[in-house]
Specification:
The complex is a heterodimer. By secondary structure, chain A is mainly β. Chain A contains no helices and 10 strands. Chain A has strands spanning 5-7, 10-13, 19-24, 31-37, 43-50, 65-69, 75-79, 88-95, 106-107, 111-115. In chain A, strands 2, 4, 5, 8, 9 and 10 form a 6-stranded mixed beta sheet that branches. Chain A has a 4-stranded antiparallel beta sheet with strand order 1-3-7-6, with no helix packed on it. In chain A, a hairpin with a 5-residue loop joins strand 6 (65-69) and strand 7. Chain A is globular and about 40 Å long. The model of chain A has no long low-confidence stretch (mean pLDDT 92). Chain B has strands at 3-7, 10-14, 19-26, 32-38, 44-50, 56-58, 64-68, 73-78, 87-94, 102-103, 107-112. Classes of the chains: A mainly beta, B mainly beta. The interface between A and B is medium-sized, with 26 and 26 residues.
């Protein structure tokens, strides 16, 4: 079926505004991840959802960041009171089950966030 | 925690030449290892994965990687570079019971005509 879909593909916002980034995982995938890719850096883990289990939020950089996953499918990453250092590409990924060698991550094309 | 180090943030090769991207992992137990490729304005695409079934892993687009436990390495190679190989490549590692991937900083490959 279709791959991981993210929207919007680009978002420009003013410092201090709130933003919502959306991720539609591959149908049937129970695991969903958010990563952040900053210029010149690798991918930074943000949050992980697996089925109905409590999410692993250990990678969220501050309490301005939050995420939810409704109905085990669509996920929304919310950044409140955006700062310039939040500018990055936010990547969503899903996998059939929790990550293992037979269930690799499938990535969306990302949302490029620019905070002015 | 698992981690990987990619040596060289940029690699430039001539079309038809060997592509070699280096990745070393830190792990006391055999991990899961992956190589991903990211084309401009796209997400990451899985190139290949280490399953422990074989030390030489073949992936898509003619790439392969060799797992060397003694060197804690998982270098990516392609015998003959093509212009379409220009992209950023990420090595990633996960422990056997982990659900998170740890990524290297990435290596950007440019291919000269």
């Amino acid at each position: 079926g279709a791959g991981v879909s993210q929207s919007p593909s680009n978002k420009v916002t003013e410092k201090g505004k709130d933003v919502e980034l959306r991720c539609d995982p591959i149908s049937g995938h129970t695991a969903l991840y958010w990563y952040r890719q900053s210029l010149g850096q690798g991918l930074e883990f943000l949050i992980y959802f697996q089925g109905n289990s409590a999410p692993d939020k250990s990678g969220l950089p501050s309490d301005r960041f939050s995420a939810e996953r409704t109905g085990g499918s669509v996920s929304t990453l919310t950044i409140q009171r955006t700062q310039q250092e939040d500018s990055a590409v936010y990547l969503c990924a899903s996998s059939l089950r929790a990550l293992n060698v037979d269930s690799p991550l499938h990535f969306g094309n990302g949302t490029r966030l620019t905070v002015t | 925690a698992q981690s990987v180090t990619q040596l060289g943030s940029h690699v430039s090769v001539s079309e038809g030449a060997l592509v070699l991207l280096r990745c070393n992992y830190s792990s006391s137990v055999p991990p899961y290892l992956f190589w991903y490729v990211q084309y401009p304005n796209q997400g990451l695409q899985l190139l290949l994965k280490y399953t422990s079934a074989a030390t030489l892993v073949k992936g898509i687009n003619g790439f392969e990687a060799e797992f060397k436990k003694s060197e804690t390495s998982f270098h990516l190679t392609k015998p003959s570079a093509h212009m379409s190989d220009a992209a950023e490549y990420f090595c990633a590692v996960s422990g056997l019971n982990d659900y998170k991937l740890s990524f290297g900083a990435g290596t950007t490959v440019t291919v000269r005509a």
